[in-house]
TrEMBL record:
InterPro entries to which the protein is assigned, alphabetical: Amidase_dom (IPR023631), AS_sf (IPR036928)
Region (Disordered), start-end ranges: 198-217
Sample GO molecular function, one term: transferase activity
Domain Amidase: 116-275
Upper taxonomic lineage: Eukaryota, Fungi, Dikarya, Ascomycota, Pezizomycotina
Keywords annotated in UniProt: Transferase
Superkingdom classification of source: Eukaryota
Official protein name in the record: Glutamyl-tRNA(Gln) amidotransferase
Organism, scientific name: Metarhizium acridum (strain CQMa 102)
Length: 545
């Protein structure tokens, strides 16, 4: 090993070519050594900026020091664009790719960063859904014409900025189904190829619309956290399909400025995570003072869709989780049916499936047509001699449905508000001691294979009413937690593979912190676990291609 003490301006005589060096702190200053520790340079503290943290660097023959990034391959096609900081408070597109038709993702060393109370997310690698503005980078909304027509964003969305302010490192923008409408892989995804779901045989639909953030989080151990959005299930459904922790927050918990809208009355920003502890700390950074973690929990659990026996592996997983949860809380369990409760409470009103029949579909269609489509079509036509831009079948169908229905936005909002007021006051009310009087736990769906190479007859319309819509209509928080996995026989691999099993937890509106705290405590008690990347949430294992 060669060790030399020198001034900064003498490094040029010692290092004749650019190489990677690792910085470490010594009693006299800093030592830079190459990766093999064959050549080291000691630099006195007085000649080096103290703001340069420990970690790997490039050193040039003229004495300059550059931060090093490692390039990872986006083999799952999760990213729409990968980024690096531009040095001016914004970002630039990374001008690199990797063989195999994959984008390259530039990731800085964790050694550069040390979390502090002011920067709790220092060094946390973050991917964001490509409907959020990021200063210096274009937003695509999943549409090629939109991407190529509009300029780069001149500011960053407040939700993203909150995470950056907490120290998170944005490594790229991640694919969304077009205009955040629901799309099924692969047929509905026309402009951009749908990201791959790593679970099971690797050819299962990853669900939508936050498909890219979920795919990346489930696939890449070097990616810590991803930011998505949930209007009608766009975080929760991909979380369930790909075995992740994911949350739809209380409506209005963080600004949705500079985020492409679907329906402002429903739109929310949420997080995908593998580790519930990082999930909770990221939520605190994202929602700031609008969330308070607390460990005084409800002792009443409302259960929806849970089995009455453990006769199958699937039933046993669900039953075991519910037993462990209620034992941990010392809580009572009541089977809950929202339609029956509505009927008993509101006998003179229409049944819920009729009252709310097209509420979600109409409001999203009419609002997005007004807020997104009309301006986009006009701008594009003006620039292209009256031509129309291409739009995928799913948003076209949904916008058309809104155009054809004579209902007004005010009509639709009135039905939603009627349900919201009833549900938040009578079914899932707040409590002065536990924040939420009840914890509502439901089974979202049984995991069954949904192959991405299936031919479709056309795009599907949104579900008019289901238990997953309770949070959408009420504004209450709804969070997905993975609890295990279920075997199936894959027609792709001709082998037994596994798919994730999840449940959802809800609390009173504004009581998000109760669920985040509870999930952390359940993790500490061994009832929930940190999920792994790869084809199994339990065992990890290599992704199949």
């Amino acid at each position: 090993m060669t060790t030399t003490t020198c001034r900064t301006d003498e490094k040029a005589r010692l290092i004749q070519s650019i190489d990677i060096y690792i910085r470490s702190t010594t009693t006299e200053g800093s030592r830079f050594c190459d990766a093999a520790l064959r050549n080291c340079v000691d630099v006195h503290a007085s000649t080096l900026d103290d703001s340069i943290p420990d970690g790997p660097y490039f050193m040039s023959s003229w004495g300059s020091i550059f931060q090093a990034y490692r390039l990872y391959s986006d083999t799952q096609a999760s990213f729409s664009e990968t980024t690096i900081p531009d040095g001016n408070g914004g970002f630039a597109v990374l001008p690199a790719n990797i063989p195999g038709q994959s984008l390259a993702v530039a990731v800085p060393s964790r050694l550069y960063f040390k979390p502090t109370p002011e920067k709790p997310l220092a060094g946390v690698r973050l991917g964001i859904k490509d409907i959020y503005d990021l200063k210096g980078v274009k937003t695509s909304n999943g549409n090629r014409a939109w991407y190529n027509h509009y300029a780069v964003a001149d500011a960053t969305a407040p939700a993203v900025q909150n995470l950056i302010n907490a120290g998170a490192i944005v490594v790229g923008k991640m694919k969304t189904s077009q205009f955040a409408n629901g799309e099924t892989a692969t047929a509905d995804w026309v402009d951009y190829h749908s990201p791959f779901n790593p679970r099971g045989d690797g050819y299962q639909d990853g669900s939508s619309s936050s498909t890219g953030p979920a795919s990346g989080e489930a696939s890449y151990p070097w990616l810590d956290i991803t930011l998505g959005s949930d209007t009608g299930g766009s975080i929760r459904s991909p979380s369930q399909a790909q075995g992740l922790y994911g949350n739809r927050p209380s409506h209005g918990l963080v600004s949705m400025d500079r985020v492409m809208p679907l329906a402002p009355e429903y739109d929310t920003a949420g997080i995908f995570a593998r580790d519930p502890r990082l999930w909770a700390s990221t939520a605190q950074a994202l929602y700031l003072d609008n969330i308070t973690l607390q460990s005084t929990y409800p002792t009443s659990v409302l259960a929806v869709g849970f089995p009455t026996n453990s006769s199958t592996r699937y039933n046993a997983l669900l039953d075991n989780f519910l037993r462990n949860l209620t034992s941990f809380l010392s809580a009572s369990v009541t089977a809950y049916n929202v339609q029956e409760s509505w009927k008993a409470d509101m006998p003179n009103e229409q049944p819920l499936p009729i009252l709310l029949k097209n509420t979600y579909e109409l409001l999203t269609a009419k609002e997005q047509a007004k807020l997104v489509r009309d301006t986009f079509v006009s701008d594009y036509a003006q620039a292209h001699d009256g031509r129309l831009p291409h739009v995928d079948p799913s948003p076209l169908q949904r916008w058309g449905f809104g155009d054809e229905d004579p209902s007004t936005i005010e009509d639709v909002v009135a039905a939603k508000t009627k349900f919201m007021d009833w549900f938040n006051k009578r079914q899932l009310p707040r409590d002065p001691r536990t924040c939420s009087k009840h914890l509502l736990v439901y089974v979202p769906r049984m995991p069954t294979p949904k192959y991405r190479d299936t031919y479709l007859s056309g795009p599907s319309r949104p579900f008019p009413f289901s238990v997953s819509r309770l949070s959408v209509y009420s504004g209450a928080p709804d969070m997905v937690v993975p609890i295990g996995e279920l075997a199936y026989e894959s027609i792709v691999t001709n082998h037994t593979e596994v798919l994730p099993v999840s449940v959802d937890m809800m609390a009173a509106k504004g009581c998000d912190g109760v669920i985040f705290s509870l999930v952390q405590d359940l993790h500490a008690a061994g009832i929930l676990t940190t999920v792994k990347t790869g084809r199994s949430i339990v065992d990890g294992e290599d992704i199949l291609y």
